[in-house]
C-alpha cells in the first residue's frame, strides 16, 4: 500500500518497505513509500512516538532539498530563470520599438506579452 511519510522527530528512522527498509530523515515531508501491507495500530504508535507519521494514499512527493547536477539549488536556478526572462522582456521591448511595419510590430508585441507573462509566472512561483 502507498503511504505518504513525514518525519518531525530528531533521529532518522528506518521504515520497512517492499524490498527492504527506507531511512526517513528528520524534516522529511510527504515521502511516498510502498509498504508491504497495511500498518497496524501498534506500528503506527511505534513510529508516531519517534516523530514519523503516515498518511494513507500517496501525496505528491516533494523533494526536501533539490539540487541540480552542478550542485545549484532549484531556488538559485529559479533566480537564473527570472534573470533570463527579464533579458527576453528587454529584448522584446527593443524589437517592438524597432519594428517598422504593423505586421512586425504585432509579432514583436506578441513576443513581449508572452515574455512578460512568463516573467510574472516565474516571479509568483518563486
TrEMBL record:
Composition bias type Polar residues, residue spans: 63-78
Region listing for Disordered, in residue ranges: 56-78
Coiled-coil regions, chain positions: 82-109
Keywords, sorted A to Z: Coiled coil
Taxonomic placement: Bacteria, Pseudomonadati, Pseudomonadota, Alphaproteobacteria, Hyphomicrobiales
Highest taxon, organism lineage: Bacteria
Protein name: Uncharacterized protein
Amino acid at each position: 500500500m502507498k503511504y505518504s511519510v513525514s518525519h518531525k522527530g530528531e533521529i532518522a528512522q528506518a521504515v520497512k518497505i517492499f524490498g527492504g527498509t527506507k531511512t526517513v530523515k528528520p524534516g522529511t515531508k510527504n515521502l511516498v513509500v510502498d509498504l508491504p501491507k497495511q500498518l497496524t495500530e501498534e506500528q503506527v504508535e511505534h513510529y508516531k512516538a519517534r516523530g514519523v507519521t503516515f498518511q494513507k494514499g500517496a501525496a505528491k512527493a516533494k523533494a526536501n532539498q533539490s539540487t541540480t547536477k552542478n550542485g545549484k539549488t532549484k531556488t538559485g536556478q529559479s533566480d537564473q530563470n527570472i534573470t533570463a526572462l527579464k533579458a527576453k522582456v528587454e529584448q522584446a521591448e527593443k524589437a517592438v520599438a524597432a519594428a517598422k511595419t504593423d505586421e512586425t510590430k504585432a509579432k514583436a508585441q506578441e513576443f513581449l506579452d508572452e515574455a512578460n507573462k512568463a516573467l510574472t509566472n516565474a516571479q509568483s512561483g518563486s
